[in-house]
């Protein structure tokens, strides 16, 4: 019953959105059953499709986690997109700059670079909030714009491979291998070891939030900032730390594309994973493990959209994805109220 | 026959989950009387009144207003039926004028739906005349005293033609002088034919002003009487359901040595204005210093400075040594919901608040959950916290038990100095008594306690000395053995003493 | 609540039933040649590059009786997935990638699926790498076309000031700018050229508002003709031309219809012809991969638009001069800078 209460909202909204989607598909003169069957079999019906779905899910896990972690501290991180972008660039930079290093050094270096770059970027927003009280939503949105422009500048003017829109390739020692290469499974899909990193990070964040004094302080900050202050916590410093960690998590989201897939940084790589992460965190109620499940669901939506693109124009697919997200959020809220799941 | 009844509620039952807040409550309120509803916290007084005001819907039962059956779905319905309520926390907009607050939401409108201030003012003036109330309508609400703000709330109801007025613990925030004035107003209202429902747990007041009394206990009516036929002991029996003996006054005397010396401390308010002005006093070992004062005279800022939550100038000397910013001090804050607990946490997590770094509860990397749990269970037992479940969310506890959790946590911090603000605000007699006994016990151990309270009875009962703050200074330092509420009240209002400086 | 669930269930049931009968009309092999095409970031409706490719498909459908499907993947990781999706289909024989950003992916996929045939428009040729034998690289000499429209602008300008609006500030678009500038200077050494870019990201190709802003600025500075190489952003340039009653030069397709009377000409890339030709070769069995197919002035693979709709805007003596330059380029008498 407990699980039903928590899953009823998302399930009913998925069914409802499939129906609304069917209406749209009929309107453009296609057969909804055919579209849905294709979408389902091409994503989850074969190992290549599953690999694609998990590949799409990987950055969403990390950006979702980023948003969720900030939210634990009562902060809205709208800046995962920018943090991911600077993180991805930093990972690539480490990978194509320190080419002589062995993998045992270089891979951790790429991971740490991505984390630190994202963390630094988000910490700016956190510091501005703590020091001057400017709202983190505005701070992070503005920093997104700056991140895009800055990274574009760096790529176009300093690190560009001519006649492309990407940087040089990273050293083979910086590559996070594809499961295809390691196991022969998921043939041809870009699904790679970044997923393992993302899953491990979920476990670490779960532990930090639930078990450590630091996580306890973060939670307290989010639930009741006044009580946190009265309990002697340094609220300002915690705000900066919370944003920094959130940014670091988003910064890791770039590994999937850079070190796991293309082996270079390419402009426009993000596919809005930073923004989709907000929806992921929202639907998963900021629970690290639920985030994995929801991210995979979004992976199905995204890759599924591509598989039916020959039948349904891209715009319709985007509309459908938007409707599904909206429905899940609103219907879940409705059920929360109905079952009194939300805390008073 | 029923025409003389303003309100009749029959068989009202309301449950919240497993809790029966009201259990077939019957109550009759005679028109043109002051009717007190008394009982412990959690006895169901507020629930009953919230049902009458349309905030809650009863599971069963019927309500008659002026003899007619009424269905009240919302406060708007209640207002239409002539029922108004003054809540414990005022619903006023501080930045608006008195007039604007009164007419807000029910403005007299003129051409093009604009507010016709002239006609509104006439209507309000009429009310003020009728009920002999004196307030400047153009004053900014936030600058007025609590007593005056309460009057504004009452005028708001009269402006909406309320015939039945519900007042929820109206005297909790008032000085004795302000209470007198409120009661004078209530008597005028009664004389004009209004019906007044008074929720309170102060027995002296009940006996002084009401004509009828209904006692609630555990959601049931345990007494229904005319005031002239009863007395304090009988009422206490009906409230508590048995004999109850209040604890005695403070026994131990303070030692000579100082725990805390406050020397020339000045603190600014949130707005940057001087709130505490060059203030000095000492707290002896084993002493309880009471701090009295009308709210907003610097008590809050002083407490926050001592607890390291606010910048100050001057110095604190703790146990003979000049103290830096973070004094080791236990603090029971005035607003426990805002500052003392985290509603989303369970008891154990609330006990951990502010102590998560201590070696007793943390390995440095992770929290020692077993140790925390065992510790919490010890506190639950020692402080008789109910329900006795460490895993329960604190939001599910009554106010008194929440306060016990805060007290338990702070008292167990092993500090020499304890700062307490309004520790029994909103608590029933039993819970308040328990908190008092805890404070006396800590004092007997030789700790120094600074107690801020608006309940002068509480200050007189617990304190050795009472510092009365007025305008950021100590207007008088009184010996609680020789002073009384009247004297304290006159220093609070600046009628006696140096009066502080007017700047 | 219960009724709602019933309603939903019956709706789903109805959908499944109605759709069962129609299943067989897709993914069956009608024996016709089937083409899969993956669009560039801009996707269909850019009134330029991608739409030109689409015209090639339509023409092949009508004249050669082929079938086609397309995918619009957007930026990011989907290009490879889209190519792979077509490649793993039995019924699809030829796969197109539209745009230079497909270079890496299409090379890789072509190697992986040696039985399929591939073509990539604007493929970036790297002399150090070989092109797979089942892939043909379609390269356009945009610098030749840009040089020519530069010459037209240089000859027609009355204020002696012309403008250029680029999309994303990148070496690729720089090539358009530099060769255009060279064209202007070639006929009009004293001519002044103002340059503006819409941005530094891929979005700079999709921002007509910014395009209009840049163009208005240049027109106000005395420019009377602007050449744009900025995708959808260019629609804003045309809007500004209409508003200021000045002139613009289109790119990729003949963009005359976007602002008739204000667009002197367009630097035309015959993407449609190239797509059509590749399909025709496959159909006739003459497809030959592993090579670069260059479309320049010589083969009319790039050109400037000169039709009934715009020839009144290009005087005969100007046209004559431009034709001389064209011949000089073809003959190698003029070298065109690209950087």
Explain how this protein is built:
The complex is a heterotrimer of chains A (344), B (503) and C (339). With 344 residues, chain A is an all-alpha fold. Helix content of chain A is 75%, strand content 0%. Chain A folds into two domains: 1-30 and 314-344, no CATH class; 45-311, ABC transporter involved in vitamin B12 uptake, BtuC. Chain A has helices at residues 2-27, 32-44, 47-72, 80-97, 103-132, 136-157, 179-183, 194-211, 213-223, 225-230, 235-252, 255-262, 273-283, 288-307, 314-338. In chain A, α13 (273-283) crosses α14 (288-307). The longest helix of chain A is centred in the middle third of the chain and has 30 residues, at 103-132. Chain A is globular and about 60 Å long. The two termini of chain A are 21 Å apart. Chain B is of the alpha/beta class and 503 residues long. Chain B folds into two domains: 2-240, P-loop containing nucleotide triphosphate hydrolases (Rossmann fold, 3-Layer(aba) Sandwich); 258-328 and 415-492, Rossmann fold, CATH 3.40.50. Chain B contains 16 helices and 20 strands. Chain B has a six-stranded mixed sheet with strand order 6-7-8-3-9-10, with helices on both faces. In chain B, β14 (312-318) and β15 (321-322) form a beta hairpin. The termini of chain B are far apart. Chain C is an alpha/beta fold and 339 residues long. Chain C is built from ten helices and twelve strands. Chain C has helices at residues 2-20, 49-64, 78-87, 103-112, 142-156, 171-187, 208-220, 234-244, 271-284, 316-330; strands at residues 34-38, 67-71, 94-98, 117-121, 135-140, 161-168, 192-199, 225-229, 247-252, 263-269, 291-295, 302-304. In chain C, α2 links the parallel β1 and β2 (67-71). Chains in contact: A-B, A-C. The interface between A and C is large, with 42 and 45 residues.
């Amino acid at each position: 019953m407990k699980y039903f209460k928590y899953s009823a909202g998302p399930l009913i909204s998925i069914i409802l959105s499939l129906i609304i989607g069917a209406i749209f598909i009929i309107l453009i003169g296609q057969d909804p059953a055919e579209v849905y069957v294709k979408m389902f079999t091409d994503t989850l019906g074969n190992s290549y499709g599953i690999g694609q779905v998990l590949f799409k899910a990987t950055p969403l896990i990390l950006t979702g986690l980023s948003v969720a972690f900030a939210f634990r501290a009562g902060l809205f991180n709208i800046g995962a997109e920018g943090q991911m972008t600077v993180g991805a660039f930093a990972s690539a930079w480490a990978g194509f700059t320190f080419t002589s290093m062995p993998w045992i050094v270089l891979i951790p270096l790429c991971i740490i670079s991505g984390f630190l770059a994202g963390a630094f970027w988000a910490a700016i927003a956190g510091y501005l909030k703590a020091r001057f009280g400017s709202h983190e939503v505005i701070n992070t949105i503005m920093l997104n714009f700056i991140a895009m422009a800055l990274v574009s500048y760096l790529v176009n003017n300093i690190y560009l491979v001519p006649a492309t829109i990407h940087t040089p390739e990273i050293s083979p020692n910086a590559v996070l291998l594809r499961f295809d290469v390691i196991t022969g499974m998921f043939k041809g899909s870009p699904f790679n070891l970044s997923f393992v990193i993302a899953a491990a990070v979920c476990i670490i964040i779960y532990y930090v939030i639930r078990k450590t004094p630091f996580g306890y302080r973060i939670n307290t900050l989010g639930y009741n900032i006044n009580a946190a202050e009265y309990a002697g916590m340094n609220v300002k410093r915690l705000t900066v730390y919370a944003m920094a960690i959130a940014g670091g998590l988003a910064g890791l989201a770039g590994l999937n594309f850079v070190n796991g897939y293309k082996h270079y940084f390419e402009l426009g790589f993000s596919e809005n994973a930073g923004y989709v992460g907000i929806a992921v965190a929202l639907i998963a109620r900021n629970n690290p493990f639920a985030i994995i499940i929801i991210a995979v669901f979004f992976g199905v939506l995204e890759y599924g959209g591509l598989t039916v693109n020959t039948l349904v124009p891209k715009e319709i697919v985007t509309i459908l994805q938007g409707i599904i997200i909206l429905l899940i959020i609103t219907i879940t809220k409705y059920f929360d109220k109905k079952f009194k799941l939300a805390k008073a | 026959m029923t025409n003389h009844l303003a309100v009749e509620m029959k068989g009202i039952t309301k449950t919240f989950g497993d809790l029966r807040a009201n259990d077939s409550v019957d109550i009759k309120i005679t028109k043109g009387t002051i009717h007190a509803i008394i009982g412990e916290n959690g006895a169901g007084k507020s629930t009953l009144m919230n049902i009458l005001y349309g905030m809650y819907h009863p599971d069963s039962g019927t309500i008659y207003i002026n003899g007619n059956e009424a269905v009240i779905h919302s406060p708007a319905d209640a207002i239409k039926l002539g029922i108004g309520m003054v809540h414990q926390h005022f619903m006023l907009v501080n930045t608006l004028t008195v007039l604007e607050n009164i007419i807000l939401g029910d403005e007299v409108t003129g051409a093009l739906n604009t507010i016709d201030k002239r006609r509104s003012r006439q209507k309000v003036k009429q009310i003020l005349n009728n009920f002999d109330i004196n307030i400047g309508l153009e004053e900014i609400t936030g600058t007025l005293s609590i007593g005056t703000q309460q009057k504004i709330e009452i005028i708001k109801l009269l402006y909406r033609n309320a015939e039945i007025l519900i007042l929820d613990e109206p005297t909790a925030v008032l000085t004795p002088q302000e209470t007198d004035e409120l009661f004078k107003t209530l008597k005028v209202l009664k004389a004009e034919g209004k019906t007044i429902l008074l929720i309170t747990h102060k027995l002296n007041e009940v006996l002084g002003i009401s004509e009828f009394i209904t006692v609630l206990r555990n959601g049931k009516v345990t007494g229904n009487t005319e005031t002239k036929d009863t007395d304090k002991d009988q009422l206490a029996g009906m409230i508590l359901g048995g004999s109850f003996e209040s604890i005695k006054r403070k026994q131990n005397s303070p030692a000579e040595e100082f725990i805390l010396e406050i020397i020339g401390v000045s603190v600014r308010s949130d707005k940057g204005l001087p709130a505490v002005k060059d203030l000095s006093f000492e707290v002896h070992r084993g002493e309880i210093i009471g701090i009295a004062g009308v709210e907003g005279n610097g008590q809050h800022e002083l407490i926050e400075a001592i607890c390291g939550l606010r910048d100050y100038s001057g110095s604190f000397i703790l146990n003979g040594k000049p103290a830096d910013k973070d004094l080791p001090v236990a603090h029971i804050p005035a607003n426990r919901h805002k500052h003392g607990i985290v509603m989303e946490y369970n008891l154990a997590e609330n006990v951990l608040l502010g102590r998560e770094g201590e070696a007793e509860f943390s390995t440095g990397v992770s929290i020692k959950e077993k140790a925390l749990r065992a510790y919490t269970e010890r506190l639950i037992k020692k402080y008789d916290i109910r329900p006795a479940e460490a895993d329960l969310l604190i939001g599910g506890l009554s106010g008194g038990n929440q306060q016990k959790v805060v007290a338990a946590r702070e008292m167990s911090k092993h500090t020499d100095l304890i700062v307490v603000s309004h520790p029994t605000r909103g608590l029933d007699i039993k819970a308040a008594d328990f908190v008092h006994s805890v404070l006396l016990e800590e004092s007997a151990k030789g700790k120094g306690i600074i107690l801020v309270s608006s309940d002068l009875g509480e200050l007189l009962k617990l304190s050795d000395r009472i510092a009365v703050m007025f305008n950021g200074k100590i207007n008088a330092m009184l010996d609680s053995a020789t002073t009384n509420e009247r004297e304290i009240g006159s220093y609070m209002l600046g009628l006696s003493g140096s009066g502080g400086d007017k700047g | 609540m219960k009724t709602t669930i019933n309603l939903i269930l019956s709706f789903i049931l109805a959908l499944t039933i109605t759709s069962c009968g129609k299943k067989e009309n897709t993914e069956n092999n009608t024996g016709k040649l089937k083409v899969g095409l993956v669009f560039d970031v801009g996707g269909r409706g850019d009134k330029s590059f991608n739409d030109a490719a689409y015209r090639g498909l339509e023409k092949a459908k009508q004249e050669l009786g082929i079938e086609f499907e397309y995918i619009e993947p957007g930026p990011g990781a989907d290009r490879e997935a889209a190519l792979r999706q077509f490649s793993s289909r039995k019924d699809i024989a030829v796969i197109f990638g539209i745009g230079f950003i497909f270079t890496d992916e299409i090379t890789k996929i072509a190697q992986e699926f040696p039985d399929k045939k591939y073509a990539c428009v604007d493929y970036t040729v790297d002399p150090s790498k070989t092109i797979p034998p089942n892939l043909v690289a379609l390269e356009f000499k945009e610098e030749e076309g840009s040089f020519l429209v530069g010459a037209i602008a240089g000859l027609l300008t009355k204020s002696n000031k012309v403008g250029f609006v680029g999309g994303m500030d990148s070496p690729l678009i720089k090539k358009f700018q530099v060769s255009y500038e060279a064209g202007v200077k070639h006929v009009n050494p004293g001519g002044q050229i103002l340059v503006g870019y819409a941005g530094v990201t891929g979005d700079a190709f999709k921002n007509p508002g910014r395009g209009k802003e840049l163009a208005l600025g240049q027109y106000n500075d005395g420019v009377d003709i602007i050449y744009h190489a900025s995708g959808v952003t260019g629609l804003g340039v045309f809007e500004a031309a209409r508003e200021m009653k000045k002139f613009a030069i289109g790119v990729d397709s003949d963009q005359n219809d976007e602002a008739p009377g204000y667009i002197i000409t367009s630097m035309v890339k015959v993407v449609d012809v190239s797509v059509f030709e590749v399909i025709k070769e496959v159909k006739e069995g003459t497809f030959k991969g592993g090579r670069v197919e260059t479309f320049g002035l010589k083969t009319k693979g790039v050109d400037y638009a000169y039709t009934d709709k715009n020839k009144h805007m290009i005087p005969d003596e100007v046209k004559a001069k431009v034709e001389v330059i064209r011949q000089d380029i073809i003959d190698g008498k003029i070298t065109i800078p690209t950087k």
